[in-house]
Fold this sequence. Notes:
Chain A is α+β, with helices and mostly antiparallel strands.
Amino acid sequence: xxxxxxxxxxxxxxxxxxxxxxxxxxxxxxxxxxxxxxxxxxxxxxxxxxxxxxxxxxxxxxxxxxxxxxxxxxxxxxxxxxxxxxxxxxxxxxxxxxxxxxxxxxxxxxxxxxxxxxxxxxxxxxxxxxxxxxxxxxxxxxxxxxxxxxxxxxxxxxxxx
Amino acid sequence: xxxxxxxxxxxxxxxxxxxxxxxxxxxxxxxxxxxxxxxxxxxxxxxxxxxxxxxxxxxxxxxxxxxxxxxxxxxxx
Lengths: 161, 77
């Protein structure tokens, strides 16, 4: 289901697994993946990660950049009717937004999912926990200077938000 | 547009295309996030998305030293 995107009721004809069993297994699978590996594979960049990210971005000419941030929309076909007003924006279909930060090697450092289409990228950023670590002083230290200005925080490259 | 801006725009595009690519790669690996979401509640969808991102990162880690960075991912699973 995850790799081919087939609906749950397609599995009964194809591999003889009932629809409800399919959904139940999918739910258990994603829950387990999140629980067991979430901490490691969706971690906030630690010291070593930060150093590597900074080295990469320095090569690209963006000193102090920790990654690029962007939002993507996932269409929600079965959005309940009462929520459709919220999840639709200026376009037809309801969608849910995924805000993500990715680095050069396509590693996704931050994934914030669940805002409705009626938000724009700035509203999403306001709600996102992306800068929580920074605000609470848990972020790895980043120091760099450009044109004799010293900066003590990293940043994410954005476009058009 | 001045040279300064042109240079910045070029560098910015080059750096930013990675996040766009990350979405593309994610969607080509997991067709479930390419097509419309069929579940009824947002918790399920959000768990699915998280699981996809986690597994995507596992693949990235696994292939970090092997894969040609210019490899093309095709839409279409």
